[in-house]
Design brief:
This protein has about 375 residues and is of the alpha/beta class. It folds into three domains: about 180 residues, Type I PLP-dependent aspartate aminotransferase-like (Major domain) (Aspartate Aminotransferase, domain 2), CATH 3.40.640; about 55 residues, no CATH class; about 120 residues, Alpha-Beta Complex (Aspartate Aminotransferase, domain 1). The protein has twelve helices and 14 strands. The strands form four sheets. A seven-stranded mixed beta sheet has the order 1-10-9-6-5-2-4, sandwiched between helices. The protein has a three-stranded antiparallel beta sheet with strand order 8-7-11, with no helix packed on it. A two-stranded parallel ribbon has the order 3-13. The termini are far apart.
């Protein structure tokens, strides 16, 4: 009898990230929702979250009737600042979501200590950090649970896809209970996803990325493809059909991708070293890494003097350059108040959103393509105070 690919993928994924239990979902944000619900988050609770993130990582908090509390970032690492966390948590704070931004492990010593002082659980946001380690341990194994994404822009892609992981068997049972409530992925959606993955493999390369993204966004708005986010998901109100399971097709793709991941991770490490060396030679201050961190980056962040000019130059010249995070709650620009964010509450995050672009690291990026990316950002120049 053929084994269930969903269960096979969950077992393989749990083993790959060093934990005991994994539960698969349609998207990473759905996995986060399941974790929060399983942990009992609800009305009146507060959840601490970085102020430099994707709005889809905040909405599950709102869907459950809780309130996000935004924590500023360390400018060197783009990760949550433990001092800011201590200042902003209250007696209503239920847990802390620790994001490993761009793949750089957060300061887990300081953050777990700050959380423990108030008896708060930690959930790790590992959507950008597959393969990263902190003090020799995989990220995702330091809190009560973690969630992961295999959406288009992540370390590997199943088109869409999410995973909740935990080492706690009782919590795993409760997350599985939320999974039981979720709907199956529809046949039409799976067929469309299959076609999109085939097109992605054939058409998306560093020189074509900008054009491909523009076409993809237009097709998404027209309802002709499955986008990373539906229009309804940009609202703090939970859309119909949000709670959905991963399809067997995605699980089969995920199993193949896991087998290839270590080669991809080695490629990402080599390109990161290349970017570090070339930018340092040009006099740039490269992102700071603590000695206890061993990152596998999904993208390489660089602060520039004029972000809009950098992105326009990249689009004109066929150089792949990422824009996120474009705001403290990417990609939302205004009004952020609908999501509980007050302008000015996270000044370092807001500055990072104004200044930071990101360079590609995925397996289709050659050293020649990486060199073009470095040359472009060097033409734009760093912020005045970053040399």
């Amino acid at each position: 009898m053929t084994s269930d690919p969903l269960r096979a993928y969950e077992r393989a994924f749990a083993e790959s990230v060093g934990t005991a239990h994994a539960v698969s979902f349609w998207k990473g944000r759905v996995a986060l929702y399941a974790i929060l619900k399983a942990l009992g988050v609800g009305p009146g609770d507060e959840v601490a979250v970085t102020g430099y993130t994707c709005v889809m990582a905040v909405n599950p908090i709102l869907y459950l009737g809780a309130r996000p509390v935004y924590i500023d970032i360390e400018p060197e690492t783009f990760n949550m600042d433990a001092a800011s966390l201590r200042e902003r948590i209250s007696e209503r704070t239920r847990l802390v979501i620790v994001q490993h931004t761009y793949g750089y492990p957060a300061d887990l010593d300081a953050l777990t200590k700050a959380a423990a002082e108030r008896n708060l659980s930690i959930v790790e946001d590992c959507c950008l950090a597959l393969g990263s380690r902190y003090r020799g341990r995989p990220v995702g194994t330091f809190g009560a649970a973690a969630y992961w994404s295999s959406q288009w822009s992540k370390s590997y892609t199943t088109g869409l896809g999410g995973m909740a992981t935990t080492g706690d068997p009782m919590l795993a049972q409760r997350i599985r209970g939320v999974w039981e409530e979720a709907s199956e992925a529809g046949g039409a959606a799976v067929v469309m996803l299959r076609m999109q993955l085939a097109a992605y493999r054939m058409l998306v390369f560093p020189r074509t990325t900008s054009l491909a993204q523009r076409i993809f966004r237009w097709l998404t708005r027209a309802g002709l493809v499955i986008g990373s986010s539906t229009t309804e998901e940009f609202s703090p109100v939970m859309p119909e059909g949000f709670l959905r399971r991963m399809s067997r097709f995605q699980a089969k793709v995920g199993l193949r991708q896991l087998d290839r991941f270590e080669r991809s991770a080695d490629h990402r490490r080599r390109l990161k070293r290349f970017y570090d060396e070339r930018l340092a030679e040009a006099g740039w201050r490269v992102p700071g890494i603590r000695p206890e961190c061993d990152p596998v980056l999904v993208r390489y962040p660089v602060r520039v003097r004029d972000k809009a000019a950098a992105l326009q130059a990249a689009a004109r010249s066929g150089v792949e350059l990422g824009s996120w995070f474009e705001s403290p709650l990417h990609p939302i620009q205004t009004p952020l108040e609908a999501f509980g964010y007050v302008e000015g509450c996270c000044p370092e995050a807001e500055r990072a959103a104004r200044e930071t672009v990101n360079l590609p690291l995925h397996p289709r990026v050659s050293e020649a393509a990486a060199r073009r990316s470095v040359e472009l950002v060097c033409r734009i120049g760093p912020p005045d105070d970053s040399r």
